[in-house]
Amino acid sequence: MENVNKSILITGATGYIATHTIVELVNRGYEIVGIDNLVNSSKKVLDKTKEITGESIKFFESDLRERDNLRDLFEKFDFKAVIHFAGYKAVGESVLDPLLYYSNNLSGTITLLDVMKEYAVKSIVFSSSCTVYGSPDKVPVDEGNVISPQNPYGRTKAYIDQILEDISNSDPDWSIISLRYFNPIGAHESGLIGEDPNGIPNNLVPFITQTAVGKLEKLSVFGNDYPTKDGTCIRDYIHVVDLAIAHLKALEHLEKNSCEFINLGTGKGYSVLEVIRTFEKVNNVKIPFEISPRREGDAVEVFAKPDKADKLLDWKAKRSLEKMLKDAWNFQQKNPNGYK
Ligand code: UD1
Question: What is the atom index within ligand 1 of the atom nearest the CA of 181?
Fold first, then answer.
């Protein structure tokens, strides 16, 4: 057994938020073991994290539902904790194929938790989402808000949060932190890693950067008749590096007999038009766009009350919207075709 007392297992290791977290953890001296089924990502990204940190991580290609593969890993390494990122995240796809989402996100997590229990590794940081709050009836959104996800993807996050709470109630040895992300955007300052969605992006900022680079013709702004300052929806965008640092903090604040749900946002809301204007201004590029009908299921206004993260983790988001959009553009320019 490789007995490295700072060994951390990262699931979904080649994904967007995981790779940024790996950089922060490796820089902090953690030994990382990554696992990913590579369905939505590429192993090549690990060459980039190595370029940034000067260290490589151990990587295993497997789906979390392959219990024997997971058991092999837990036999081989003495994990201190797990950061669980693996999961599908496209809302529209989850509506069309809910079983795909329930099987991958729920069965994958249950298998992971079961193997963790078997090997008495009972410390986990989970990648949850503000999507569990659905369309909140008041902003800013704190962790006590009603849980009311609006689609199968969101429900997988809410069910997993509930499973974690039940496990914690059943056994005081578990240390659990579930981080509810608002809207992660941006990229590592180096421009080596960033967001590389498959196909046409669903989310606003990758759509903007791909329009700016000329891969997409124009952006559709989904609705300008919402009851907001300029009629477009408001979100709490957070720099992916701030988010990555929060995972490091969470890891260092894991406590036995505790299961905490923590919002990760900046506490500030920006409209779609403000994001477009700010992107144009800081990067000096024009984004062709048109106003289109509303997108079904969009909440009008969502932004976090991030006080709990400050109190429990001693963490605050530091990077501005300007910085997020500069870094997103830097990554897109350096990688016009993503990691391909
Ligand atoms: C979406 C998901 C959310 C998920 C998150 C992951 C929905 C309803 N919600 O959040 O569950 O956790 O992604 O990051 O899909 N917009 C445009 N044009 C576009 C794309 C987006 O105007 O081409 C607008 C949207 O209407 C929204 C804002 O930009 O007002 C942000 O959209 P997006 O980046 O997709 O994030 P969310 O909808 O907040």
Answer: 12
Rounded Cα gap, residues 298 and 165, in angstroms: 28
Atom in ligand 1 nearest the alpha carbon of residue 153: 11
Indicate the pTM of the whole model. Answer: 0.97
Please, which residues bridge with residue 129 across strands? 181
44: CA distance to ligand 1 center in Å?
27
* Successive 10-residue mean pLDDT values, the chain, 340 residues: 71 98 97 97 96 98 98 97 98 97 98 98 98 96 97 98 98 98 98 95 97 97 98 98 98 97 98 98 98 96 98 98 98 93
Provide residues with CB under 6 Å of ligand 1.
Answer: 89, 91, 129, 131, 154, 183, 202-204, 207, 219-222, 233, 235, 272, 295, 297-298
